[in-house]
């Protein structure tokens, strides 16, 4: 489902006090007397889609002008997703857009119930509406839009080479970025490699072991306090087993005292089980103290003061501490750093080979891109010739028989995401005139007709769902006006079309006819918009033809026009 504008409500804009436009999916035409405010309809649509706010357009006496539009969009579609991404809401496939402009020039915008910058409406409008008016920025005047439109017009013939080009271009960019990084950072990488080599050589020379720093710290503590450790062990041993040099008969060691206690209890243990348990525990304590005393004796024998070993340990610790200060928190960290440094050094030392490989691939991709870009140019050039001829043919029917539209392709020096082609639509107003950019080669009225011809040729290829034309029929009449109406109706087969016109030949082709009615209340002029039925259309077309709504001749001519248009559709 293609999005479309369903309803527009305008308040306080120009001569319009309040008006509601109910629009059909096809061809909508807006007519009315001079000064009734037809152009304000286009102005209102422009505001709705991010157009420039002009406080001078606000109705005299009004504090602000406001425009509110209801759009039908596909739930979950591209537009709905864009609205939801900014926090707006689409309810039951309907999107509400609002815009106000104060008399002081302040402008505010709402999208899906959420306040948004006006620029957001402009961004959204790119995929929703194309406004073609003498004072409006023409969407197809943008170079990127012209190339994209030509590509869609080229059709399936361009799809395969463009896909191949896009893939090659993406890889070309990646390889180019890698090459630039490798070549521009050569000095930094060389310095990094030197630092890594120095560190690895330093660590290899020391050859640290995991946990070595903790072991050496413990050994240094023992060696530094060897005398104190041996003395403590000997004193404790003596306290437990006694000094063999002392005279017998005065036992003060722990083992002797435990023996006396055990002997005293053993004599009476059979009289009370509780005391027997105490006797057993005293025996266990004696065995345990004896073992401890043995260990103390062995420890005292093992501890020796070794100044040479102490000096060696301290020197080794000093060397390890230097590594730890530089590379990690402990010896395990130093070894981990060395592993990582070796891996990184391998990467850096392999850069030269990598640069050679990438250079070869980059050259191959450049050659491939050149060929693919040439193929894109060939397809686009053929499409441009077909397109230019088709638009020129349309212009002949639109009362511009001497005008000629061409699509100029220029080659960029660099590859772009879509190739090397720079596309520009140009027009020559007469055979002797050189083709100029559209906004320079055509007057305001002619430009609208040129845009109509372009849109008709692009119909089906251009994804924009709504087109707005203001005074597209300026300066023409008769048969040319009928041709304009016929082409607008053709465009409306694939898109919604909204046209402001003063020609009955154009209005007759509409699916829905809206008239801007002007009422005067003293010095105040008010306008409103009415949707016409068949009889109303006959009266309005008669007015446009003869200047009199009830002219029999005008009514007959109006009926004839409506019949011709109906038969043509």
TrEMBL record:
What does UniProt give as GO cellular component? bacterial nucleoid
InterPro entries from the UniProt entry: DNA_recomb/repair_RecN, P-loop_NTPase, RecF/RecN/SMC_N
Can you tell me which residues the record assigns to a coiled coil? none
Instruction: Describe its function.
Output: May be involved in recombinational repair of damaged DNA.
Q: Which UniProt keywords apply?
A: ATP-binding, DNA damage, DNA repair, Nucleotide-binding
Report the domain of life of the source organism.
Bacteria
Per the UniProt entry, what is one GO biological process?
A: DNA recombination
Give the similarity note.
Belongs to the RecN family.
User: Species name for this entry?
Assistant: Nonomuraea phyllanthi
> Which taxonomic lineage does the organism of this UniProt entry have?
Bacteria, Bacillati, Actinomycetota, Actinomycetes, Streptosporangiales
What's the protein called, per UniProt? DNA repair protein RecN
Q: Which gene encodes it?
A: recN
Q: Which GO molecular function annotations are given, in alphabetical order?
A: ATP binding
Among Gene3D superfamilies, the record links this protein to: P-loop containing nucleotide triphosphate hydrolases
Q: Which NCBIfam families match?
A: recN
Tell me which Pfam families the record gives: SMC_N
Give a yes or no for keyword Nucleotide-binding in this entry: yes
């Amino acid at each position: 489902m293609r999005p479309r504008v369903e309803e527009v409500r305008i308040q306080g804009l120009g001569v319009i006090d309040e008006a509601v436009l109910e629009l059909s999916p096809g061809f909508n035409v807006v007519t009315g007397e001079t000064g009734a405010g037809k152009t304000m309809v286009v102005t209102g649509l422009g505001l709705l889609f991010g157009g420039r706010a002009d406080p001078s357009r606000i109705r005299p006496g009004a504090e602000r002008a406001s425009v509110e539009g209801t759009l039908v969009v596909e739930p979950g579609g591209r537009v709905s997703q864009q609205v939801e991404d900014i926090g707006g809401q689409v309810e039951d496939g309907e999107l509400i857009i609002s815009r106000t402009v104060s008399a002081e020039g302040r402008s505010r915008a709402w999208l899906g119930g959420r306040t948004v910058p006006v620029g957001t409406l402009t961004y959204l409008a790119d995929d929703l509406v194309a406004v073609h008016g003498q004072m409006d920025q023409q969407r197809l005047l943008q170079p990127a839009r012209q190339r994209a439109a030509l590509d869609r017009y080229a059709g399936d013939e361009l799809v395969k080479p463009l896909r191949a080009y896009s893939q090659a271009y993406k890889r070309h960019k990646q390889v180019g970025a890698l090459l630039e990084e490798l070549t521009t950072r050569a000095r930094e990488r060389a310095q990094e490699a030197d630092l890594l080599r120095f560190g690895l050589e330093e660590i290899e020379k020391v050859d640290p072991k995991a946990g070595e720093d903790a072991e050496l710290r413990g050994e240094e503590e023992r060696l530094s306090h060897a005398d104190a450790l041996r003395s403590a062990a000997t004193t404790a041993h003596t306290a437990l087993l006694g000094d063999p040099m002392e005279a017998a008969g005065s036992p003060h060691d722990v083992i002797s005292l435990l023996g006396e206690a055990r002997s005293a209890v053993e004599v009476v243990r059979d009289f009370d089980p509780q005391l027997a348990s105490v006797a057993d525990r005293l025996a266990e304590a004696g065995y345990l103290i004896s073992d401890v005393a043995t260990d103390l004796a062995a420890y005292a024998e093992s501890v020796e003061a070794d100044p040479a070993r102490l000096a060696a340990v301290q020197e080794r610790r000093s060397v390890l501490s230097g590594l730890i200060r530089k590379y990690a928190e402990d010896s395990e960290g130093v070894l981990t750093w060395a592993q990582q440094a070796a891996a990184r050094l391998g990467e850096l030392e392999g850069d030269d080979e990598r640069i050679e490989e990438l250079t070869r691939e980059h050259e191959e991709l450049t050659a491939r891109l050149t060929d693919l870009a040439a193929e894109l140019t060939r397809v686009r050039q053929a499409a441009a010739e077909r397109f230019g001829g088709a638009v020129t043919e349309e212009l002949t029917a639109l009362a511009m028989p001497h005008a000629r539209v061409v699509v100029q392709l220029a080659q960029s020096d660099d590859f772009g995401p879509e190739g090397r082609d720079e596309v520009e639509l140009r027009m020559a107003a007469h055979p002797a005139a050189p083709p100029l950019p559209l906004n320079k080669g055509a007057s305001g009225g002619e430009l609208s007709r040129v845009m109509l011809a372009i849109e008709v040729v692009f119909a089906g290829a251009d994804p924009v769902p709504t087109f707005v034309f203001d005074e597209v029929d300026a300066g023409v009449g008769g048969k040319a006006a009928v041709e304009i109406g016929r082409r607008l109706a053709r465009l409306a087969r694939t898109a919604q079309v909204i046209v402001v016109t003063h020609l009955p030949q154009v209005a007759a082709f509409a699916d829905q006819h809206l008239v801007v009615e002007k009422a005067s209340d003293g010095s105040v002029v008010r306008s409103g918009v009415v949707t016409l039925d068949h009889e109303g259309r006959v009266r309005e077309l008669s007015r446009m033809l003869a200047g009199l709504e009830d002219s029999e001749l005008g009514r007959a001519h109006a009926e004839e026009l409506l019949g011709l248009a109906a038969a043509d559709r």
